[in-house]
């Protein structure tokens, strides 16, 4: 039996028109389809065929604007090279920054924890009450923001 290696790409979604304190209304399915359409535009049918097998949006947090994409090792280069060229997701103007490419989901979540702790430290000084701080911390450190329906559809 052959083991397939995966790469997990941690992406930051920067939307300059939406303030940082408001959550980004972004569905993982729309994000997933936008990345695939950009790969189609840049690499054609070969790129889409290489990436489609094993391509999932594993995690998407609207508050910190971070997403994790899973791709097979090898074709992950198509994904990482096409991410900077995505300027629109749906009708929202965005810029995507690749933060981390890891071999395991565990290491990506460790990286995200460090990144989100830094985010919490910068935004806590702007909040006035402890209740607002607890709500923000719960939303930021929630790692269950994944759209299971799209992930089940794409499992082969």
TrEMBL record:
The terms describing its cellular component in GO are: nucleolus; ribonuclease P complex
Task: Give the species this sequence originates from.
Answer: Spodoptera litura (Asian cotton leafworm)
The record's annotation in SUPFAM superfamilies points to: Rnp2-like (SSF160350)
Any one Gene Ontology MF annotation carried by this entry is: ribonuclease P RNA binding
Arranged from A to Z, the UniProt key words for this protein are: Nucleus, rRNA processing, tRNA processing
Q: According to its UniProt entry, what is the function of this protein?
A: Component of ribonuclease P, a protein complex that generates mature tRNA molecules by cleaving their 5'-ends.
Family membership, please give it.
Belongs to the eukaryotic/archaeal RNase P protein component 2 family.
Q: Does the keyword tRNA processing apply?
A: yes
Family matches, as InterPro entries? Pop5/Rpp14/Rnp2-like, RNase_P/MRP_POP5, Rnp2-like_sf
- Gene from which the chain derives: LOC111351914
Query: What is the name listed in the Swiss-Prot or TrEMBL entry for this protein?
Result: Ribonuclease P/MRP protein subunit POP5
The yes or no answer to whether the keyword Phosphoprotein is present is no
Q: Where are the annotated coiled coils located?
A: none
Annotated Pfam families: RNase_P_Rpp14
